[in-house]
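# step 3/5: fold
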Amino acid sequence: MTKNSNNLTYNNKITYGIQYIKGRKFKESENCFKEAIKIDSVKSEAYINLSNLYILDNKKITALKVLKEYLVQNSFNETIANHLGKICINYDFKNELFELLHLANVTKDKISKDRYYLYFIFGKFLQKNKNFSSAVNAYKNSIKCKKDFFESFFRIFYLLETTNDLINLEKYINIAADIFYEKKQIHIINFYRAIFFNRKKDFKLSEEIIKDNNLETHLNFNTNLYIRLHDLLSKNNEKLNKFSKSFHYVEKRNQLMFNLEENKNYNRKDIINTMKQYKSFFTFEKYNKIKSISEKIKSEKKLVFLVGFPRSGTTLLDTILRTHSRITVLEEKPYLLEARHDFFLKHNNDLNALLDISESEIVQIRDNYFNKFRKEISDENNIIIDKLPLSIIEIGFIKSIFPNSKFILALRHPCDVVISCYFSFFSINEAMINFLNWEDTIDFYNNVFTLFEFYENELKLDYFRIKYEDLIADFEKNITHLLSFLGLKYENDLKNFNLTAKKRDKISTPSYSQVINPLYSTSIGRWKNFSKNKSAKTDLIKWINKFNY
């Protein structure tokens, strides 16, 4: 058989195989692709199509084996390797991914053009696993392999900004601008340039970049970028004292977020109903019954929960406290929520199951909880502070499992908190969906503190109240009082907490750009700038009075 006839037969097998897939005749399709491989085992098309067939037929491991077989039998093939990498990322095959990266010498920083996408995939994997500095390095290698691969630039921009590396952010913005100055990517580059100047506090120049480059028009093609642009416009206008414009842009941003398809699954009433159920269930009598069981089990861990409403200064407190030599802080890890979820899932989401909880179940919950962060604790004698603000809702469950736990309640003027939550750019979940609507934000605050007040009265909480405004007014005095509550003494390094923030890889809260600065008072009384918020004072008056504002 001649070479041309081989090619014809090979191509026919591929064509028939694809047609069989469309007709859901998977076995016939599989045979066609395998026959094509027998005809020519060097070409990649049959392998790619065969792996896609296996993915479609829910045989993901087999799909991987097909592609690995090619790379073992033949020389390195960019298309095969990239396809294999995508499958590993999409379906979280970590071991297979590292095997691929090792095979391609990617883990040894081998720079060659055919490996640019593998470095990109490696970066995505590292980013997904919160290894941000290594992710940036992988994306940089991707660019070294292929200097005009914009996806790697885009991810570098995001990571450098959110990890507060503004020097390198500016550097890579300038590199990208030289490469893409005549292409549509320049609009995204200019957007990040506007972000850079916002972070450098040159709000006027940031605004000029947005207007001069007509970014409101040019970024309309990408909903997520368009949302972030409105967030930036809101920030700039507030700093330029254009408060009504600032509110307008954040209102539009929130509406755009609310309309996103992935956010339509969240119903704000779900968490409101949960809080109402907790308020009915965790009475003094019921809690005492649960407590009598959990108190029999000794716990050596000194466990403290840092709670409060979002944007009440919890990230600031987190950063200050983790600077202390005797404290380990868990920053917004879902370990407690996972423990609660697993327990109630096992008991058909029946709250009453807590009344019949056994000692062995409590031990298991505690062990599972501590095992998840054991590696993060440098000193077993350290006080562990679990910082997840809205764990304030879960105090009933926390006290049931950890009856000797303490709480730090972070407070800030209710009106400042509400305006800040409405303006903040949160990742949306069943709680944060409340912050996309002004009235819902206020209602959510009222519901959370109504529940906290109930816990306070029924469960006799051992907690320390600390106000953001007091902390700003007299740092050392208030931190000393807080540490005394924890059985610790003040350390001089605490006042340099912002240096601790700068050393952290990535702070996963909207405060990431703020806690790297020394203490400042400019956010106190922020609510007074927004006329709409002034009317909220009436709705929040109970808490304003209760917290002595």
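# step 4/5: annotate
The mean pLDDT is 90.
# step 5/5: archive (pending)
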